[in-house]
Every structure is written in C-alpha cells, then in structure tokens.
Amino acid sequence: MTEIKDTEREIQLFRFRLSVASLFILACFGVLMLRFVWLQAVRYNEYFERAESNRISVVPAVPNRGLIVDRNGVVLARNYSAYTLEITPSKIGRPLETVIDELAKIVDIQPRDRRRFKRQMEESKSFESLPIRTRLTDEEVARFAAQQFRFPGVDIQARLFRQYPLGQTASHMIGYIGRVNKREAERLEESEDAANYRGTDYIGKEGLEKSYERHLHGVTGYDEIEVSAGGRAVRTLSRHAPIPGKNLILSVDIELQKIVEKAFGDRRGALVAIEPETGDILAYVSMPTFDPNLFVDGIDTKSWEELNTSLDKPLLNRPLIGTYPPGSTFKPYMALAALELGKRTPEMAISDPGYFWFGNNKFRDDKEGGHGRVDMYRSIVQSCNTYYYMLGNDLGIDAIHDFMKPFGFGQLTGIDLENERRGVLPSTEWKRKTFKRPELQKWYAGETVSVGIGQGYNSFTPLQLAHAVANLSNNGVVMKPHLVKSVEDPLSKVRELTVPKESYRIPLQPQNIDVVKNAMIGVTKEGTSARSFANAPYVSGGKTGTAQAAAMSKTVKYEASRIAERLRDHSLYIAFAPADKPKIALAVIVENAGFGAAAAAPIARLAIDYYLLGKRPDEPVAKVEGSTEAATQPAPAPVPAPVPAPASSAPPVPPNKPSSAAPAAPAPAAPAPTAPAATPPAMTTGRRAP
Predict the structure, then answer these.
(1) CA 546, CA 570: separation in Å to the nearest integer?
(2) Beta strands at 68-69 and 247-250: parallel, antiparallel or unpaired
(3) Which of 13, 426, 443, 672 sits in a 20 to 30 Å window from 30, CA-based?
(4) Is the Cα dihedral 629, 631, 634, 635 positive or negative?
(5) 296 and 411 fall within a common domain
(6) Are 448 and 548 in the same domain?
(7) Cβ proximity of 389 and 354 under 8 Å
(8) In this structure, are 424 and 535 located in the same domain?
(9) Is residue 410 within 8 Å of residue 668, measured between CB atoms?
(10) CA nearest 324: which of 334, 316, 332?
(11) Predicted local distance difference test score (pLDDT) of residue 669
C-alpha cells in the first residue's frame, strides 16, 4: 500500500526547524557581538594594556649613586662600570657545580668567588641573577661570548660598582654598600620606596652609606622596549632617565684624618675632632680600621673571619659605640659645676695630704704625699684627685648628673650615623632602673666619690667627650655634631646644609667658663701636657686623663710593666685651640697606652698642628718620656695579675676604684656593682688622676 506524504506538514516542520536554527545562530552571533563589544569597548583599556605589556617591556634604569667627598672636594666614594658574569640558578637546568666548573675553564674563577657566590645564594631567591665573577677583562668577555650558547642561564651584565679610593682611611665613617639580602628586600617591598628600588641590587650597609641611603640612591628611571614574541628586544620606544643620587659634602678634612690614623700606628683607639662654632666633625678616627672595598662584592669567608675574630676589633666603630670612663678629663666639668652651683670659688683651696677619708675608707691621690695647697686652678693643672673626691662628695650624684647632661654626657648626640650608643651618666634614678635586686638599687654616697674623678659608673663614647669639650669651648652654645656638612643636588649643584642652626644654649656664667678655660690652658703650659705642647705657636687648652681597663686588687699599686698590655690603663686627652676663639676641639683615647700625656696628648698635638698651621709630622708619634704624669708615679710595688673587667658600659668595681670597659658590644650588659655597704670598702689605691 502506497504511503501518501503530507507535503504541507513537512514544509511547516522544515520551516520550524529553520527558524529555530536561525534563532540559535542569531543568538550565537548576538552573544559573539556582545562579547566583542565587552572586549573591544567596555574592557578595551585593560586588554590594550595587556597587549602592550606583551609587546613592551619596562626595564628599570638604576640611577648613579651619589658621590661622597670631603670638605676640600677629595673623593671618598665613587662609581665605575664593569662587566660581571652572572648566573640565574633557576635557569641553568643542570647541577650548579658542573656549570661553575665549566665556566672556570673559560673565565678565571677563584675559590673565594665560589664561596661568595654560595653565600649570596643563601641570601637570595633562585630566580635572581647572582655574580660569580666581577670586573671581567675584555679578553674574558670575548671568550665567554663565543661560547655563551653552551650556558643557558649565564649572562654578562654591565654593572656600576662602588669604589672607595682611599681604602682603609675613614672606613668606619664612610661605611660601605653591599648586595640586598632577603630581609632587606622584604623591608624595601613593604616600604613606600618600593617602586624606587626596582632593579636595585646594592644598598648602604654601614656608615654614611647607610644613614644617607635615601639621598645617595637617587630616583630610578625606566626604559620602554619593544620586544618580539620570543622576548628579544626590537627597539627602544621611550626612555625616562633616572635621576642620580645626591652628593654628600662632608665636614671632614681627609688629610687631617690620614695624619691622625698614621699617628696611631698599630695602636687601638679613637679620635673625634669638632669645629665648635658649627658642629662640623673635622676628623672621625677609629683604629684599627678595615678596607670597605672588601664588602662591595660580598666579602669572602676567610676575610670576614679574620676581621670578625681579631682581638683588635677592626669592625668596632669606637667613637660611636665604644664606651670608656673619662678619667681626669671629667674634672674641668666638675670644677665648672662647683662654680655654677656655688659649691666652690676659684680661690678656695684645700690641703692635700695625698688621700681622702670617707668614713673608714681611704681614697688615695695619684701623688704620694699629696699636692699640698690646691685651689681650683692647681686642681686641674696638676690633676689632683683629692680635690675632686671632696668636690664629688659635696655636690652629690644627682647634682652632678643634672649639670653634666646638657653637655652631652650619657646622651645621644644625634650624629648622622646609626646605632649610636648612649653610654652611662649615673644618677640615683639610673641605678634604680638598671638593677633588679632592691639592695643593688640604692645609691651609696661612697660611689659618688669616685664619680668625681671620672671613674665609677661613668662611661662615655669618644664622640660624647669631643662633643662636651666643643660645647665648653663654645661657651655653652651647643651645635649638633655632624659628618655631612651639606647635601648637593648633582644637577643644579645647589647645596643644603644639614645643621643650619644651634641646638640650644647651656646657661653658664662667662666668668666661670673663663676660670675653667684658663686652668685648661695651664695644663698645656705648666701641667700634665706641657711637654707635648712645648713651643706650640698657638695657645690651647687641654686635660689629660687615665682610665682603668681592668679591676685591680684593693691593696696593690698599679705598675704597667707588670701587667698584660690589653689590661693596662687607657690614655685620654681633650683639647681646644686657639684658646681665645677655638677652631678645633677634640677628644682622643689610646687603649691600654697608660697616662694621658704619654700617648693621647702627642696625637692631639699633631692634629691641632696640622689643622691650624698646615704642619705635617715628619715622623711617627713617639711617647713623651719624662712627662709630668710619669714623674708623679710612686715607687714600683709588686703587682699581682689583674682581673679583666667585664665588657659592659659600667663594670662591677668598688666605688672608688672602678674599671673601665673596653669598647663594648652594641648591646651593653647592665653593670653589676660589688656587694652594697653603707660606705665603700677600704681602699689604698685611687691613682688614675692624670
């Protein structure tokens, strides 16, 4: 039976299907059109930027680091360009040691280069490019370029390097730069300057390089480079030039610095010289020193261990964090306190029998038999301990603290270096806060006696000693000490002063200042430093000092020849010149060198001679034999081995015979006194006057 087709129905079904298909296709095109509008109109800017970022690579342009020059324009830190051979560990695709061994056949790679590279790997991320060799020669660059195809992940880069042309000179002051480590990178990423440090591999680590990092770094620029699909550079589209870092114009006279460093020789110590009227630091010496160039590329392990384990502590910034008792250099300030507080007049005199009794305790003078009749002038010129034992007891510890504080003792000076140590200017409040045990928190009157001669808990940095004598010589006008006199814009050459005005003024009576200054002039003319300043064509004021470095038995006398060199007394000297209008004030300490006139005063004379007269020494400093101080030494007595003092800002000692701290580590231990008593234990020594 033949089936009859329903043509009309099939046509309607076909049309329905066609309509559905058309609607579906139309909907698809609609969706495509909407998507097209979304991409090309609504999100045009976003995708345009993405496309451009694939086509254009933004490369940071690191700025030239600012220069550091002394007050006369001598360059102390500069930049130079050189080629480096760098490895990106994540891209080499085979064992690192194998790659380095093969590279060593093409380029000279020493064991120290390998050690430095491994240490940098520990401090960096695997995708960072690290130098295995720096300062390649042209021949080495050519040899590697010919075989570079064998070493994926290894490239030659042109880098700017920092150089310190004077080597070890003034290294503690200038500091150095080094490669950014992980901790520093994280800190930079979180800082507001993160964008400015894109592409920066080196930052200041110590000294002025660190404290003026933001000034020296400059502003990072960038280059927009068109790249191919394979990542190869096609052309430079635009360049936003970096702005070089600012130059630091120091207040330091580097020739004066060299003379003082040479004068120290192989001795340990520090000297800080300041222009009182401005606060300009003229010399900042810490001995021994080190070569900062070792740190620029990353110091090798052997060199680091030598510096870090040396008994001489060459990395210790002595003027900034080394703390020492001031010894007799404290006496001029004690005399001024007595005048200002009405406890003494210049004419008031004592009869010095060579000792001072406090209760049942005998505090001895440095001179057997005493100095006889002593007024204020003679007390400073002859450095009479007995006078200041009595004065300290009369003033009291809190009055001494309050008077000394404005001079900068035990205070942060605000110098433009980081990690300055405060030191210790003792008071009843200080002792109460420092010690935990109640019986140790009480201040005993006997402890004040030794504070009067610059011993006891007194512990100051050489920088503070220099700052104080600058304030005294400047008649109480306080200028903040600073190493950078001005910051210079490298483009406009405009300079901005770092310390444009005085900090404050200490209210002092001019006649009282004149009394103390006159006595300090007497020290250089007829006192303990007369031999060191004999025939000087200028008038200067000064004061010698001697500070203990080891605690001695109470019943013996000090004899340097019987004591190990590192346990001998420190030699100190403070000075200012010319006396009528000082242009230089300084403090110098020579560790374990004995009396102040024997080692410290001659160095001060050399420094002042050069700065005022331009006179250079013809030969190294020699010890001044037969000085006034040496002549006052008592007859030798058997001396047992001394007990080394703890390395802290105020070591434990009996009140009138304190030991000084060797330059302390950055975190000082709290001083621990001997067992407290109503009065200090009986003493037969106390001879650290000159």
Answers:
(1) 6
(2) parallel
(3) 13
(4) positive
(5) yes
(6) yes
(7) no
(8) yes
(9) no
(10) 316
(11) 35
Token duo for residue 673:
């006194």
**Which residues form the domain of 148?**
62-250
Q: What is the pLDDT of residue 487?
A: 97
Same domain, 450 and 593: yes
Distance CA 447, CA 400 (A): 12
pLDDT tens readout for residues 439-482: 899 999 999 999 999 999 999 999 999 999 999 999 999 999 99
pLDDT on residue 55: 64
Number of neighbours of residue 309 by Cβ within 10 angstroms: 8
pLDDT in tens, 574-600: 999 999 999 999 999 999 988 888 899
Give me the residues of the chain with pLDDT under 50, please.
619-687
Of the three residues 223, 250, 277, the one that is the final residue of a domain is: 250
Q: Looking up tokens 């700017």, which residue turns up? A: 160
Please enumerate in sequence order all residues whose Cβ is within 8 A of that of 478, keeping only pairs 6 or more positions apart, or say none.
406, 408, 471, 502, 503, 504, 505, 506
Q: Which residue has the tokens 């004591």?
A: 563
End-to-end Cα separation, the chain, in angstroms: 143
Whether residue 286 sits in one domain with residue 197: no
Domain assignment present for residue 557? The answer is: yes
Residue at 636: amino acid letter: P
* Residue 365 C-alpha from the chain's centroid: 37
What pLDDT, on the 0 to 100 scale, is given for residue 199? 81
Residue that the structure tokens 């109109």 belong to: 41
Of 603, 551, 593, nearest to 571 by C-alpha is: 593
DSSP letters spanning 343-412: S--TT--EEE-SEEEETTEEEE-SSTT--EEE-HHHHHHTT-HHHHHHHHHHH-HHHHHHHHGGGTTTS-
245 and 209 co-located in one domain: yes
Angle subtended by helix axes 331-340 and 385-395, to nearest 10 = 50
Helix axes 462-473, 331-340, angle to 10 degrees: 40
Reading the block at residue 169, the tokens are: 């000179």
pLDDT, tens digit, 9 for 90 and up, residues 322-359? 999 999 999 999 999 999 999 999 999 999 998 899 88
The catalytically annotated residue of 251, 328, 450, 532 is 328
- Clarify whether 124 is annotated catalytic: no
361-382 burial by CB neighbour count: b if 16+ within 10 A, else e? Answer: bbbbbbbeebbeebbbbbbbbb
Query: 245 with 264, same domain?
Result: no
CATH code where residue 73 lies: 3.90.1310.10
Domains in the chain, number: 2
Q: 208 and 260, same structural domain?
A: no
pLDDT in tens, 647-690: 333 333 333 333 333 333 333 333 333 333 333 333 333 445 56
Query: What pLDDT is stored for residue 51 in this prediction?
Result: 65
